[in-house]
Amino acid sequence: MSEQFDVVVIGAGPAGYHAAIRAAQLGMKVACIDAALGKDGKPALGGTCLRVGCVPSKALLDSSRQYYNLQHLFGDHGISVKDAKMDVATMIGRKDKIVKQFTGGIAMLFKANKITPYYGFGQLQPGNIVKVKQHDGSEVELKGTNVVIAAGSDSIELPFAKFDNEYIVDNVGALDFTSVPKRLAVIGAGVIGLELGSVWKRLGAEVTILEALPEFLGAADAEVARTAAKEFKKQGLDIKLGAKVSKAEIKKKEVHVTYADGEGEKTLAVDRLLVAVGRKAASKGLLAEGTGVKLSDRGQIEVDEHCHTGVDGVWAVGDCVRGPMLAHKGFEEGIAVAELIAGLPGHVNLDTVPWVIYTEPEIAWVGKTEQQLKAEGIPYKAGSFPFAAIARAVAMGEPAGFVKVLAHAETDRILGLHLVGVGVSELVHEGVIAMEFNGSADDLARICHAHPTLSEAVHDAAMAVSKRSIHKVN
Ligand code: FAD
Ligand code: NAD
What global pTM score does this model have? Predict the structure, then answer.
């Protein structure tokens, strides 16, 4: 006999817990199933993001940045500290405490919203029934008038570099090294490679990043990527482009990584290897025979623009469907689906999902890049402004980078905002808001921005679109 719910959510990551909480707010009876366990072996809600993704990586980025600044920036302020040391165990303990606070916070929100959590692996059966294999071995069946699949994603494993969770690791291992590896190699110069590579580089590791593609950060605006690459080089991150890795062998407590570049085959000996070559939808074992839910050839759950699978009452959101694999994209899809189920309007505009890479300098963007506009034959104008001419950035000792506004050549409508520099993870939202309101570069240029703030770079870049920036020669 299965228990009946209005909504059964599979997965309590960003997409799933947003769907569950919003559905409960709208008066529905909700169950949410999650299979994950925390570091202490107990169930931990919040998904990849809270356990082993966004939140712990930002905690380590912040700790390592404090340490780096102490050694490289504080001297300019006249501050000197002798014998600064980094205690890795304390840093990891701080990160674990933050993770526990936030995963526990989801459990508390579930209780407050009367959502029933189930801890175990859920499999969708025909007829909107979800069979849950709980951690104690028992099974329960839940029947949902609606089922929301929010199963998320897992790391892609390379066949020649299998994870052993000690020497060859993915994000989970690289967030939990017990000491700073002397030499760290990373396969993949993407978001995880750059963020976690930066963490361990700042703490003293020699970091080599091997990227298969000849181009660095191809999804970012090319000028932003060039500026970021220059800054990473100054920090000592060794990024090798066009490097095709063919082998990774563990020999005498070292990992020997074989790769080929334009100069032929080479081997790199390191203490740890982080594989960060992308993520794949976690759809394995999720669907029993005959549910009617379709998977793409990449294993993603197929959905329409409203996250509906085409099977009556079955929806899918977050990393397990098309679109960027970002927590906030999952948040919005979870909310939209709960509202659609309640008969309200719900929609996510994938064209205005912001991207942020939390390196130093930070990289952020929304909308189209110059290379995309050129390829699509869309006429545009660009205006940019450097942080080196922003008093606040210089006062902070962070003059690297710039802001660029791209606007339609005829209508002036903003098509993209691209930023590299200090604090741009916050500034990018000026572009998101302006684009959601169909704003023009002129609108942004006429909005008063406080002085002295970093946001003035956005203001001046918008003014530069029509060659009227005040603080630079146009
Ligand atoms: P997930 O967070 O993966 O959650 C899915 C949950 O469902 C998991 O808990 C899983 O155990 C559970 N589950 C799966 N299948 C089943 C099943 N059959 N039964 C029961 N439970 C199941 N994104 C950002 O926006 N900003 C960042 O700064 C950022 N940093 C990141 C750093 C790292 C190191 C990583 C790896 C990712 C990062 N991401 C970041 C990406 C972000 O974590 C994901 O986009 C986000 O977690 C996806 O949310 P989701 O709910 O779709 O899936
Ligand atoms: P990614 O897609 O960002 O980068 C993977 C990189 O690996 C690419 O540059 C790719 O060309 C390269 N690559 C692929 N196969 C390779 C091979 N065999 N050898 C060498 N290089 C290879 O993936 P990721 O860094 O693993 O991160 C996964 C996803 O997690 C991201 O795409 C993003 O959606 C999410 N994430 C987001 C944030 C954030 O928002 N700040 C942070 C971390 C992760």
Answer: 0.98
Q: Where are the beta strands (DSSP E) in 197-328?
A: 206-210, 238-240, 244-251, 254-261, 264-270, 272-275, 279-281, 314-316
Pocket of ligand 2 (CB under 6 A): 158, 187-193, 195, 210-213, 245, 276-279, 324-326, 356-358
Q: What is the pLDDT of residues 280-336, one digit of tens each?
A: 999 999 999 999 999 999 999 999 999 999 999 999 999 999 999 999 999 999 999
Tell me, in angstroms, the distance from the centre of ligand 2 to residue 172's CA. 14
CB-based contacts of 429: which residues, under 8 Å, 6+ apart?
354
Tell the residue nearest (CA) to atom 12 of ligand 2: 188
Is 361-465 in the same CATH topology as 3-154+280-351? Answer: no
Residues 6+ apart with CB under 8 A from 113: 20, 21, 24, 25, 30
State the pairing for strand pair 183-187/272-275.
Answer: parallel
Alpha carbon distance 429, 280 (integer Å): 28
Q: From the CB of 151, is ligand 1 less than 6 Å away?
A: yes
d(CA 217, ligand 2 centre) in Å:
10
Residue 248: nearest ligand to its CA? 2
Q: Does the domain made of 168-277 have the CATH classification 3.50.50.60?
A: yes
| Mean of pLDDT over the chain | 97
List the catalytic residue out of 72, 306, 347, 451.
451
CA of 347 to the centre of ligand 2 (A): 27
Instruction: List beta partners, residue 34.
Output: 119
Q: Which ligand is nearest to the CA of 34?
A: 1
- Could you name the CATH architecture of 361-465? 2-Layer Sandwich (3.30)
Using CA positions, which residue lies closest to atom 17 of ligand 2? Answer: 212
Q: What is the mean pLDDT of residues 131-151?
A: 98
How far, in Å, CA of 405 to CA of 369, rounded?
Answer: 10
